Predict the 3D structure of the following.
Amino acid sequence: MLKPIATLGNPVLRQVARPLERAELALPETQTLIDDLVETMHHANGAGIAAPQIGDSRRIFAVHVQDNPRYPYKPNIPLTILVNPVLELLGSETFDNYEGCLSVPNLRGLVRRSVHVRITAWDRHGNDLAFEAKGLAACTYQHENDHLDGLVFVDRVEDRKTFATWADFDRFHKEAFVERAKALVARYGQ
């Protein structure tokens, strides 16, 4: 079922989400929450969404990029559900990513993200996951994981002068950013 997306100012976005036990993850209501999360993300053309964004403060997020019209420069990422994720930044290379967020409508800003992360988590069935992500995919996972720690991308913008509406991003910044983003995707394949 589609859920309303919490926007900046809603206290749920500032709470540290609580971890789940495997028994709780197996409950039908938790599985329904995951289905709702995915449906809401797809409906909003998001690249990812975290449970706090739909009002549930548990450590779950979804990522899925499949030729996303909102982010046409992002590489495709298969539907991935992460429960109790832990991200480890690998290496020192970073990328200044022009981010937006479903919870912060009509605003973008530059966020410095690591281009290589190791992720450990459970999938939606409680199976252990461990993988690495690079490039823009790594940025996407970091953005969603921040939501579980009560952070929104605006908290990570170092230079407030980079804030732009979507229309002004498209008009003044998109071309140069997409060129940089495509170079990163070409380098890492993700």
Observations:
- The first helix runs from residue 22 to 26.
- Residues 113 and 139 are 6 Å apart (CA to CA).
- The domain at 11-188 is CATH 3.90.45.10 (Peptide Deformylase).
